[in-house]
Amino acid sequence: MKIGAPKEIFEGEARVALTPDSALQLQKLGHECYVESGAGLLAGFDDAAYEKAGVKVIKTAPALFKEVDFVVKVRPPTETEIKRLGAGQTLISFFYPGQNEALLEKAKASGANFIAMDMVPRISRAQKMDALSSMANIAGYRAVIEAGNNFGRFFTGQVTAAGKVPPAKVLVVGAGVAGLAAIGTSTSLGAITYAFDVRPEVAEQIESMGAEFVYLDFKEELTDGAETGGYAKPSSPEFREAQLAKFRELAPDIDIVITTALIPGRDAPVLWTKDMVEMMKPGSVIVDLAAERGGNCELTVPEQKIVTDNGVTIVGYTDFPSRMATQSSNLYSSNIRHMMFDLTPNKDGVVEHNMEDDVIRGATIAYAGEITFPPPPPKIK
Ligand code: NAD
Fold first, then answer.
1. Ligand 1 pocket check: which of 122, 213, 224, 273 to mutate, most ligand atoms within 8 Å of Cβ?
2. Global pTM exceeds 0.80
3. Cα-flanking dihedrals φ and ψ of residue 169, to 5°?
4. Of 4, 129, 233, 273, whose CB is crowded by the most CB atoms within 10 A?
5. pLDDT for residue 152 is more than 80
6. Which among 225, 133, 214, 147 is positioned nearest to 177, based on CA atoms?
């Protein structure tokens, strides 16, 4: 099959869905690879690097869409991109079908097949294709780097001839994939790191990474907030109050807050309120990774960095993976390559879109003119 990556057209998006390395792997599966000229430039891959890896460079996006059987992308397709597709072609990208119903209708009408990387079931076998996790991991790392960039002090404590420097104190709220990456980065930079999550089962992971789990003195803590499937559910008002009271206690002493708390299918819970920001010392930094879903901090302005009257910097960027485009393109294209691996069972360049396979079925949101979202629950864990 012919697989091609167009240039991302979403403003500021620097990632690319196909890297020269992943193209080499795809060719081993019997596929031919294509890329739109300049598609990898912002991620550090020029046309010559693709050509060296045996990838054919095509001048324009319409020509690429016409040439290939599989279009691989990062951002959800635009209507214009969908119009370029027809029956027999497949597009693989993030899509968020639950939030993009009108776009899903257009996808159906095109007659092409659509695989959403955000719909890959989170089962063990599919971890290699779990682009949500690979991008969350980068976001968590980058959030700490961004915090450090806006913070006027060291993370680690030091005693030098010039004097004694106390270590920075970092609080990570939410210890899913992004939160754990933030905790690992923060502790490795030498900060005293605290972390909180409504799922008490993550306490051990937090502590194994050298951070301190913030326990609540709350009788329902062990049951509240955790639900089947490993995801959080909204907390009871009483639990939330206990959580906010704990955060108010910590706020004057914490230098950096990284918030990552999300509940599937809902707006992000507001956990760091205006009064907590006001209690923080000047020079403190908040990085709100939940900004795209409204933000965990009451004062976050999505996509922007602001400084409050009391000198607290609040970063609400929503494009952290794109800010590390080389790393994220490498990991994302690897997720895509693994998806293509499963779609090419005989490694002979022939795709079998097996709708009996839990992972392929789960991620397929439109197939041959039909909407196939939401999928049935996976049979295997
Ligand atoms: P997420 O992005 O949905 O949420 C981030 C974190 O915020 C979660 O840990 C959640 O518990 C926490 N949170 C929600 N409300 C909160 C509140 N009020 N206060 C503090 N924290 C709050 O999470 P995620 O990174 O997608 O991971 C969620 C789960 O999925 C984890 O158990 C993870 O191990 C699991 N997971 C499994 C796989 C796999 O099996 N392939 C892959 C990735 C993640």
1. 122
2. yes
3. -110, 125
4. 4
5. yes
6. 133
